[in-house]
Inverse folding.
């Protein structure tokens, strides 16, 4: 289990690993016009789909089985190596298949010519990144916070350095970014595997791999639908508008998804504890349910505070970090940040469903997501452009989370502290509306002062919602008091 004392390590790692790639943003936006950036994002989405689909659910079942002693006993490290090898082989097969299918992708999704090599390198780079995430997951579950931190930071530095270097000297534009991701991830992965081969027993168990595939392969069907759901917004924009609109929307996503990355950093502290409570049959089920709910509330409210900062200062961030041609992305960042904040609950829904071994239920949720994206986002994007698509994404996301919560609670019930979380969400909606109005004011100095005051007030309100005593307990645990 990851101790809460290690939370500063994960938070610092998240801060550094997200701050380092920020330095690539001015370089990316000055080398790539919005339309070129939009094409890059679509090809990378194809690569991620290939890697996720052909992994056959190995990454999701690894974390579950890691904590299930009845499933793997003491063979946790053999399970890791088996999953790593299986995912690598399957990912390479997927990359080859998708590169051969490039003409179909051009017609269905991209709407412009790309080389099979571009698609292939994006697919393989995504597979390597999934393998790296598998290694990070093992470090996290082993409470190796410092090792987790070091690997995360080295990975971020390697990617940023190679992207900047290759963009400036290769002249290959989008292809340079895909190649940089491939080379940087491969380098870090090779070093990590060499380190782990010396530290942990190495082996391969076909039975463990087959058991993992048997539990996880239904999620491959879900990956098809997930790809349609996660990429549908950009495909819709490409059809009703242009790759230029896709580029602007993708930049807004890149800014707002920092909130989700923050959640992913702190989940390194609470998710292992959630798994342990779920499987701790020595405690009454109601006690486990209530303890998990109480555990999660402060983390959601801390995430809401980060979301408030992104919403309030989104306009200034785009002005400072991006080329002026991307300025139209700023107004929609706040709405997308709300969407990513609510994915906090999605992280728990997935664990609840996997606990109940109901992997097929995730397929139904993903199908619903696709239907809602096309049913809500398409008409809104067609009539209102970027803003319409953004509000459609937020609306459909909320509806999907409601259905997912209904299903997940029947696999393992969590006693959420709903009143506090709803109040925090309403507060953020108010902050978003106020921030949009402040951005219309001409006096930049006054606007900045008002925004700082708004952030301080929102922070005080969110802390009061959680209860100052809860934060004091966490701080005392951090400091060992």
């Amino acid at each position: 289990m990851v101790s809460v004392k290690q939370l500063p390590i994960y938070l610092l790692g998240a801060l550094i690993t997200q701050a380092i790639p920020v330095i690539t943003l001015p370089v990316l936006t000055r080398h790539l016009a919005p339309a070129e950036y939009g094409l890059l994002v679509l090809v990378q989405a194809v690569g991620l789909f290939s890697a996720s689909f052909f992994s056959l659910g190995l990454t999701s079942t690894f974390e579950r089985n890691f904590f299930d002693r009845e499933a793997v006993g003491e063979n946790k490290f053999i399970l890791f190596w088996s999953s790593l090898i299986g995912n690598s082989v399957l990912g390479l097969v997927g990359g080859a298949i998708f590169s051969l299918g490039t003409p179909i992708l051009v017609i269905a999704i991209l709407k412009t010519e790309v080389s099979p090599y571009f698609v292939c390198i994006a697919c393989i780079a995504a597979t390597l990144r999934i393998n790296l995430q598998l290694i990070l997951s093992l470090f996290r579950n082993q409470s190796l916070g410092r090792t987790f931190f070091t690997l995360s930071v080295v990975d971020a530095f390697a990617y940023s350095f190679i992207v900047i270097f290759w963009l400036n000297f290769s002249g290959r534009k989008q292809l340079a970014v895909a190649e940089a991701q491939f080379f940087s991830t491969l380098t870090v992965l090779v070093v990590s595997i060499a380190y782990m081969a010396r530290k942990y027993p190495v082996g391969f168990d076909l039975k463990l791999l087959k058991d993992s595939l048997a539990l996880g392969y239904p999620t491959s069907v879900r990956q098809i639908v997930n790809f349609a759901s996660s990429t549908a917004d950009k495909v819709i924009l490409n059809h009703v508008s242009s790759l230029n609109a896709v580029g602007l929307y993708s930049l807004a996503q890149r800014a707002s998804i920092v909130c989700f990355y923050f959640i992913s950093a702190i989940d390194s502290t609470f998710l292992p504890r959630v798994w342990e409570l779920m499987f701790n049959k020595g405690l009454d089920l109601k006690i486990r349910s209530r303890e998990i709910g109480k555990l999660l509330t402060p983390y959601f409210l801390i995430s809401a505070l980060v979301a408030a900062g992104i919403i309030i200062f989104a306009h200034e961030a785009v002005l400072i970090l991006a080329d002026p041609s991307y300025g139209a992305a700023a107004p929609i960042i706040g709405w997308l940040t709300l969407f990513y904040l609510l994915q906090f609950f999605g992280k728990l829904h997935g664990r609840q469903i996997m606990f109940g071994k109901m992997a097929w239920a995730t397929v139904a949720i993903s199908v619903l997501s696709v239907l809602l994206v096309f049913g809500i986002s398409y008409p809104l994007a067609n009539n209102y452009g970027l803003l319409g698509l953004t509000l459609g994404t937020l609306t459909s996301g909320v509806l999907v989370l409601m259905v997912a919560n209904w299903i997940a609670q029947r696999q393992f019930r969590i006693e959420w502290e709903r009143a506090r979380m709803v109040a925090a969400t309403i507060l953020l909606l108010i902050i978003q509306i106020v921030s949009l109005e402040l951005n219309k004011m001409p006096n930049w100095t006054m606007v900045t002062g008002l925004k700082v005051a708004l952030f301080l007030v929102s922070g005080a309100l969110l802390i009061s919602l959680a209860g100052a005593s809860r934060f004091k307990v966490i701080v005392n645990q951090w400091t060992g008091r």
Q: What stands out?
A: The chain has a mean pLDDT of 81. The CA atoms of residues 256 and 310 lie 7 Å apart.
